[in-house]
Specification:
The chain has helices at about 15-20, 30-40, 55-70, 85-105, 115-120, and strands spanning about 75-80, 105-110, 125-130, 130-135. With about 140 residues, it is α+β, with helices and mostly antiparallel strands. The chain has a domain at about 15-110: Rossmann fold.
Length: about 140
């Protein structure tokens, strides 16, 4: 999932997901499994609206659905909550946690928000100038 917002604003949410690399549509196939993976972003109620009508948090959830369409074992998220208000940020994190719990997927997150890393991640690595300077499990609260 990219750091910058990347959904095509002129397409609906459903169309954005269908045209994602790894989607059943892009591979020339359709089926229940592909549609089920496409719903993972939690946007079923607005799937047929143009992405340009989505809030920032909804676009991030759309991008999450796009990233999940191929059912990866590793999900890499580059600052998934950048630019979001606290409510949208919580919504994105809740969806990530639901997916992680349901699939057992490994999620690698980059963030500059240390509080998010501390609250949301099982392990944290601190990098400076491309080098890992500290690595460990999250602290007990």
């Amino acid at each position: 999932m990219p750091q910058q917002l990347s959904a095509d604003a002129t397409l609906t949410g459903r169309e954005n997901v269908a045209l994602s690399p790894g989607s059943t549509t892009c591979r020339g196939a359709t089926g229940r499994a592909g549609r089920r993976r496409a719903r993972r972003g939690g946007l079923s109620e607005v799937a047929d609206r143009p992405a340009k009508t989505y809030s920032g948090g909804m676009v991030r959830r759309l991008e999450l659905a796009q990233a999940l369409v191929s059912a990866p074992r590793l999900l890499v998220l580059d600052e998934p909550t950048v630019g979001l208000d606290p409510v949208a940020r919580a919504s994105v994190w809740a969806r990530i946690e639901q997916i992680k719990q349901a699939t057992g997927m490994t999620v690698l997150v980059t963030t500059h928000l240390m509080q998010e890393a501390d609250q949301r991640c099982d392990r944290v690595a601190l990098m400076h100038r491309g080098q890992i300077r500290a690595l460990g499990t999250r602290r007990a609260t």
